Amino acid sequence: MQLYYHPFSSYSQKALIAFDEYAIDFDPRSLDGPDNPAMRELAALWPMKRFPVLVDGARTVLEASCIIEYIGLRVPAAERLIPEDPVLALEVRMLDRVFDNYVSTPQQKVVFDALRPQHQRDAHGVNEARRTLETAYAWLDARMAMHTWAVGERFTLADCAAAPFLFYAHWTHPIAPEHTHLLAYRQRLLQRSSFARAVDAARPYRSYFPLGAPAED
Ligand SMILES: N[C@@H](CCC(=O)N[C@@H](CS)C(=O)NCC(=O)O)C(=O)O
Question: Boundaries of each GST N-terminal domain copy (predicted)?
């Protein structure tokens, strides 16, 4: 299997965590560097040019959540990052959507805006995105008061999403100190070896982060 990804990209890290959790190997097609042939291949595979993208023989799998579900088919059902129990599986997919839509999307909005020239910036959209993050943080903090991982006691697909998204979201719009449960969860995620390895592999790229990367992570 070939994985098109960039080590600093949050959605790539989401998939990388799952490969690591499953101890599944892949042929890396890193998108790092200008005029990268992998970037031209990506554009041919997926005109949106979003990554990660997985290629397995004749099959192309788009979207980090679907890549995680796809590679999970290679391991016994009981070990998958989406539980066998259909109701729990639904809750995992629901939390995965929450992290994509209400943490990652507003976080990316703020970061992409910061990369634009001043006169093309969207102050209203950025304020809305910051408010969405605040609402998500408060909701997640209350939830994490009762959970070790996003859904119950097992590390799942939802945690693969939470790890990079909360990591970068806290850089972008700090989680308030009173959200102790959410901050503790973010620390638990940082200590998970699959995510710790992804964070370490991405360290050389921190200068790409337009809002300034804090030293403490
Ligand atoms: N919905 C996609 C989102 C992927 C995504 O937005 N990836 C970012 C990198 S973190 C990207 O491709 N950015 C390049 C671009 O926007 O052109 C998924 O779940 O995989």
Answer: 1-79
pLDDT in tens, 109-139: 999 999 999 999 999 999 999 999 999 999 9
pTM: predicted TM-score of the whole model, two decimal places: 0.97
Which domains are assigned to the chain? 2-79 (3.40.30.10), 86-199 (1.20.1050.10)
State the closest ligand 1 atom to the C-alpha of 48, by its place in the atom list counted from 1: 17
| Count of C-beta atoms within a 10 Å radius of residue 105 | 15
Please indicate whether residue 156, judged by its CB atom, sits closer than 6 Å to ligand 1.
Answer: no
Average pLDDT of span 27-42: 93
For ligand 1, is residue 132 a contact (CB within 6 Å)? Answer: no
Q: Is the CB of 51 under 6 A from ligand 1?
A: yes
Terminal C-alpha separation, the chain: 31
Residues in the chain: 217
